[in-house]
Amino acid sequence: MTPTCPQCQSENTYADEGMYICADCSFEWPCADAAPEAPDSLEVKDAYGNVLADGDSVILVKELKVKGSNITLKVGTKIKNIRIKAGDHDIDCKVDGIGMMLKSMYMKKAN
């Protein structure tokens, strides 16, 4: 059983990779029993070799078509508050309220 959302008090919450997420207001908070991630254990670089970190903002350098939909992410789209994950698609983010996993090779770090 997942706890209620501390922000909107909704019971429509779920756990995902050590975080509880509210499906109604998109608020995220850490699970109390989740093991902390090792800091600096994963180094992800953008298209120009700049190191990316959780919470950074990035800008797309290539137009990307989203599989399974008719959505196309345009060049120059700014994505805020990214999360670094292990794997081929190493950036976890939300674009226009839609959660997606993207490759860091198609983005540059925003100033």
Q: Care to count the β-strands?
A: 13
Taken from the alpha-carbon principal axes, the silhouette is globular
Order of adjacent strands in the largest pleated sheet: 1-2-3
Percentage of residues in DSSP E strands: 35-45%
Number of helices: 0
Residue-averaged pLDDT: 88
Helix amount = under 10%
| Low-confidence spans | none
Q: What is the structural class?
A: mainly beta
The major sheet is characterized as: 3 strands, antiparallel
Radius of gyration: 15 Å
Alpha carbon gap, first and last residue: 41 Å
The SSE order reads EEEEEEEEEEEEE
Write a structural description:
The protein has 111 residues and is an all-beta fold. Helices cover 0% and strands 35% of the residues. It contains no helices and 13 strands. The protein has strands at residues 13-16, 19-22, 28-30, 44-45, 51-52, 58-60, 64-65, 72-73, 78-79, 83-84, 91-95, 98-102, 107-109. The strands form 5 sheets. It has a 3-stranded antiparallel beta sheet, with no helix packed on it.
Helix and strand topology:
Elements: E1 13-16, E2 19-22, E3 28-30, E4 44-45, E5 51-52, E6 58-60, E7 64-65, E8 72-73, E9 78-79, E10 83-84, E11 91-95, E12 98-102, E13 107-109
Antiparallel strand pairs: 1-2, 2-3, 4-5, 6-9, 6-13, 7-8, 10-11, 11-12
Summary, kept brief:
The protein has 111 residues and is mainly β.
Characteristic key phrases:
111 residues, mainly beta, three-stranded antiparallel beta sheet, 0% helix, globular
